[in-house]
Amino acid sequence: MLSTRCKSLWVAVFSLFLIIFSIQGVAQENGEKAENKKEFDASEVIFGHVNDAHEFHFLSYQGKDGKEHEVAIPLPVILYSPQKGFSFFNYSAFDHGENKVDGYKLENGKIVPIDSSINVYDLSLTRNVVQMLLALTLLVILMLNIAKKYKKGIGTKQAPTGFQNAIEPIVVFIRDDVAKSNLGDKYEKYLPYLLTVFFFILINNLIGLIPGSANVTGNIAFTMVLALIAFIVIMFSSNKHYWSHIINPPVPVGVKPILILVEVFGIFTKPIALMIRLFANMLAGHIIIICLISLIFIFGALSTAVGWGFSPVSIAFAVFIYLIELLIAFLQAYIFTVLTAVFISQAIEQPHHHHEDDGTKYDDAVMI
User: Fold this and answer.
1) Which long-range contacts (CB under 8 A, 24 or more apart) does 238-241 make?
2) Is it the case that residue 365 has pLDDT exceeding 60?
3) In whole angstroms, how far apart are CA 331 and each of 205, 281, 318, 336?
4) Where do the DSSP E strands lie in 114-176?
5) Phi and psi at residue 292, in whole multiples of 5°?
6) Using alpha carbons only, how large is the chain's radius of gyration in Å?
7) Residue 13 to residues 8, 40, 291: CA-CA distances in angstroms?
8) pTM given for the model
9) C-alpha dist (Å) from residue 208 to 93, 132, 322, 364
10) CA distance 278 to 260
11) How many CB atoms lie within 10 A of CB 107?
12) Which of 313, 323, 278 has the alpha carbon at shortest distance from 292?
């Protein structure tokens, strides 16, 4: 019931957004908007937030000089061209596309060579890369500090302290309800990987909710790499029974060719499902929040009074979705981890054995 209501709410929000956007378009066509005033482009704001970039952009404002200024942290640009070699400079050198630097210019937000005959490879540390490295550093520091406490006996001989109190229940939960319940006696072999995946996704999800930060888990390249790692782990963990079930499924001969194709296809759809699920959920939440905030400026473009009047409603809905996103940040990290454990358990499952004891037959399915 709650899921249905949430879906209805999102549909209503998007419908309202499209209606207002259409009204704005009509108003622009009728010339109601002043020519000297820059119009609000909702699509530019939305895609500017969810797409990767060469800077961390926080806000823009109009200065006393009448020009638009930005509060942003530019990142280093690293370009390689077989014809020109390497180029190193700061992204701010472009001055929002006004300047050309070392034979390169900005075109629709992308760095391109002025000479179209030159090939260029962008090796820059974009905001997704930088934020991912920061999340990884934060994860390592937190876990090493907690590990040091356990070595000192804090958490074993005495009660855990500080941040250790928050992490220990999560570790125990992943161990007991995810690893043990799916992997059985071999859970210790895969527990470090499962914990790393969970906390790495969780930290990136939470940091991505900070205004001005990058939505790393909403990037298909990021989730694709996580899915590829899961695919490699599953393949290297698979046993003879796993492949025999795929190549020679226990079904009638006439159905075998069809089922073999389905099973082979299923090998690749499992990591693809992991990739798409995390990417789509984290991207959708960010887009909804930005759409709700954008409604303020869209209404304000029609009438300042209407814009101010609608602000409390828009902010209230945005805060509500933001709180849901906090829950989804934990939920998506858990779903990715538990599905990875399930797929690994399918790869290491042992065949069913038939036993006879006093004339009674029963199946014993052993999960290793």
Assistant:
1) 238/347, 238/348, 239/347, 239/348, 239/349, 239/350, 241/349, 241/350, 241/351
2) no
3) 10, 10, 19, 9
4) 121-122
5) -65, -40
6) 26
7) 9, 19, 8
8) 0.79
9) 27, 10, 11, 46
10) 28
11) 11
12) 313
216 close to 222: Cβ distance less than 8 angstroms? yes
Question: Where is average pLDDT lowest: 7-11, 21-25, 250-254, 287-291?
Answer: 21-25
Burial of 162 by CB count in 10 Å (0-12 exposed, 13-18 middle, 19+ buried)? Answer: exposed
91 vs 45: which has the higher pLDDT: 91
What is the chain's mean pLDDT, rounded?
Answer: 80
Taking only the tens place, the pLDDT of each residue in 247-272 is 888 888 788 888 889 888 888 999 99
Helix (H, G, I), strand (E, B) or coil at 76: strand
Q: Which two tokens stand for residue 360?
A: 């009674």
Question: What are residue 90's DSSP bridge partners?
Answer: 76
Closest CA to 56 of 77, 72, 78, 76: 72
Answer whether residue 322 shows pLDDT above 80: yes
CA 273, 279, 284, 289 dihedral sign is: positive
Q: How many residues does this entry show for the chain?
A: 368
77, 111 contact by CB (below 8 A): yes
Contact 342, 194 (CB under 8 A): no
pLDDT tens track for 31-80 = 444 444 456 666 777 777 778 888 887 777 777 776 777 778 888 888 88
Q: At 79, which helix (H) or strand (E)?
A: strand 76-81
Quick one: pLDDT at residue 352? 61
Q: What is the DSSP string of 188-254?
A: HHHHHHHHHHHHHHHHHHHHTTSTTS--GGG-HHHHHHHHHHHHHHHHHH--HHHHHHHHS-SS-TT
Exposure of 238 in the CB half-sphere (CA atoms within 13 A): 15
Q: Are strands 76-81 and 121-122 parallel, antiparallel or unpaired?
A: antiparallel
